Amino acid sequence: MHTNFDTNITIGLRRNMLEDIEKLFVEKNYTNFQYVLEAMDEVPRHFFLGKGFEQLSYKNQNVDIEADQTISKPTTVAIQTFLLNLQKNETVLEIGTGSGYQAAVLSHLAGKVFTIERHEILFQRATKKLKELGLKNIHTFLEDGFKGVPRYAPYDKILITCAAPEIPQNLVNQLKVGGQFVLPMEDGEGQQDMLRLTKNEDGSLSEEKFGKFEFVPMLEGISK
């Protein structure tokens, strides 16, 4: 996909990135993942990091951004997106907008994306970037992620893009019955277990685990 923010170099770098993600999905025996690659091909990852970061943007590594945060490595974005299994008519709540890249990917798969950032500098920057890309189904909020955005609940899917110390009950309450919740949860040893939780009719959660990951911690409050 060629956007107004692309060059032949960035298009080539993105295709190489997607080939590496496809290999990872095959190694993990994931199937029916092509839609994730197509969504990620729609988004110029380098646009969220700025000039001079074109090469680094498409390497499979975390990249530091403002407020001591990071933009997750492409394979992590791909796996979290895949685990959500978004449908075009669904709403998704993302906790941790960060650079805005993950929200941009989700916008190509969901009906509406609601995304929360607690750092004002990141909130302002990501909101501006997402508007410049013309993504009209994304709604950004400067809020405490632990509280969610109850006025637009319930959500079909919820995604946390930072390391949760526990499963936030406020967010579980904002998830539809049958909805799914993807989050990295602290394992007590400096890493996180990637979980996918499904909300049952009685409000309980069914849990699946998908390996170890590393994220910055999820924190309470708003940082201005």
Would you mind describing this structure in some detail?
By secondary structure, this protein is an alpha/beta fold. It has a domain of 151 residues: 3-Layer(aba) Sandwich (Rossmann fold), CATH 3.40.50. Helix content is 30%, strand content 25%. The termini are far apart.
In short:
The protein has 224 residues and is of the alpha/beta class. The chain has helices spanning 8-27, 34-41, 54-57, 74-84, 101-107, 120-132, 169-173, and strands spanning 63-65, 69-71, 91-95, 112-117, 138-142, 155-160, 175-186, 192-199, 205-213. α1 (8-27) packs antiparallel against α2 (34-41) and α1 (8-27) packs across α4.
Structural key phrases:
single chain, 224 residues, Rossmann fold, seven-stranded mixed sheet, two-stranded antiparallel sheet
How many whole angstroms does the radius of gyration measure?
16 Å
- Tally the helices: 7
Second CATH tier, the architecture of the domain at 63-213: 3-Layer(aba) Sandwich
Decide which structural class fits the backbone. Answer: alpha/beta
CATH fold field value of the domain at 63-213: Rossmann fold
**Strands across the major sheet, in which order?**
5-4-3-6-7-8-9
CATH superfamily of the domain at 63-213: Vaccinia Virus protein VP39
The average pLDDT is 95
* CATH C-level category of the domain at 63-213: Alpha Beta
Taken from the alpha-carbon principal axes, the silhouette is globular
Order of SSEs? HHHEEHEHEHEEHEEE
Beta fraction = 25-35%
Biggest β-sheet, characterized?
Answer: 7 strands, mixed
Ends: how far apart?
A: 36 Å
Helix content: 25-40%
Low-confidence stretches: none
Q: Report the count of strand segments.
A: 9
